[in-house]
């Protein structure tokens, strides 16, 4: 299980340095060793807080990933405003899409400084949906250059879609990809191309956004639940409730099944869960370790609610 720290960047509401540090401390004490962040999260605040939380920890005792593509540049003209993308931070810098060699190198250098480290274990091209030509050539080439130098351990892409990630796996020299929301109990888009290609080429897949923006995050599904950053449709809510009913019959909370479902595919090397507080760490771990009988997965598969990833390999 990995720990995603976008919320350290004051996502939707403010948090504190102390709360973020205590979450990292609790995670490490519980055995979590993978931490994921990005410059995008709080205009660098998430990286700074994560770096502070890991300060003093031996560098080989954790795996650290961040992202490139949204370069942060000074923006004094907006310094008196708040960031317009949901993070409660001053907009003293702004994001500029940049997958050029220079942009990638500048972004990595800045991330190293904010994270107070001299190397990154994984760097993902961040949401290059509209920038395939540049991201798959100059952007990735720059990351591979850093990988060859030992500054970066592994390179890849992180996206909310599966098809372009499959293109990266099939056509470029990536080591790992992060797929957000496309391999969950409600959306198995990644099963079509991405996961078979990753398994065939030995590329690791990190599953993120396994709750699909909240719809799968509670044992019961409310009428106003969100799916993919918006109000969930009635059919989607009813399907989620059907899955929750199966889980309930086996004594398994819906969020626990959501966390563990992606890990049933052998190409998936980690599931990353968003975290703000130490209490979130405890909750995530409880869901990660909840015993789930094989019969639950078999029933979800047989009912057509969610194919068992293990079954798709046969």
Automatic annotation (TrEMBL):
Classification via CDD domains: AKR_FDH
UniProt cross-references to InterPro entries, sorted A to Z: AKR, FDH-like, NAD(P)_OxRdtase_dom_sf, NADP_OxRdtase_dom
Domain NADP-dependent oxidoreductase: 1-302
SUPFAM superfamilies the UniProt entry points to: NAD(P)-linked oxidoreductase (SSF51430)
Domain of life: Bacteria
One of the Pfam families matching this protein, by short name: Aldo_ket_red
Protein name in UniProt: Aldo/keto reductase
Species this chain originates from: Herbiconiux aconitum
């Amino acid at each position: 299980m990995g720990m995603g720290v976008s919320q350290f960047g004051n996502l939707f509401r403010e948090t504190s340095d102390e709360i973020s540090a205590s979450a990292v401390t609790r995670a490490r004490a519980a055995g979590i060793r993978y931490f994921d962040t990005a410059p995008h999260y709080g205009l660098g605040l998430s990286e700074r807080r994560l770096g502070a939380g890991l300060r003093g920890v031996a560098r080989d005792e954790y795996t650290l990933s961040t992202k490139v593509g949204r370069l942060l540049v000074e923006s004094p003209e907006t310094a008196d405003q708040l960031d317009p993308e949901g993070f409660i931070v001053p907009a003293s810098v702004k994001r500029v899409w940049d997958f050029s060699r220079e942009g990638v190198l500048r972004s990595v250098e800045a991330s190293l400084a904010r994270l107070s480290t001299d190397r990154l274990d994984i760097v993902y091209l961040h949401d290059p949906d509209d920038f395939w030509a540049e991201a798959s050539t100059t952007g990735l080439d720059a990351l591979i250059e850093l990988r060859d130098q030992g500054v970066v351990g592994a390179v890849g892409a992180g996206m909310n879609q599966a098809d372009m990630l499959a293109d990266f796996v099939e056509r470029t020299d990536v080591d790992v990809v992060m797929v957000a929301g496309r391999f969950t109990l409600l959306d198995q888009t990644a099963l079509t191309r991405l996961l078979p290609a990753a398994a065939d080429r030995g590329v690791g897949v990190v599953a993120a956004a396994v709750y699909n923006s909240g719809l799968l995050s509670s044992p019961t599904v409310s009428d106003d639940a969100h799916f993919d950053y918006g109000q969930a449709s009635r059919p989607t809510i009813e399907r989620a409730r059907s899955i929750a009913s199966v889980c309930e019959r086996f004594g398994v909370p819906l969020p626990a099944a959501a966390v563990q479902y992606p890990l049933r595919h052998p190409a998936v090397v980690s599931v990353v869960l968003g975290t703000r507080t130490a209490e979130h760490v405890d909750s995530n771990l409880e869901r990660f370790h909840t015993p789930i009988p094989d019969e639950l997965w078999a029933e979800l598969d047989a009912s057509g609610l969610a194919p068992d990833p293990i079954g798709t390999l046969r």
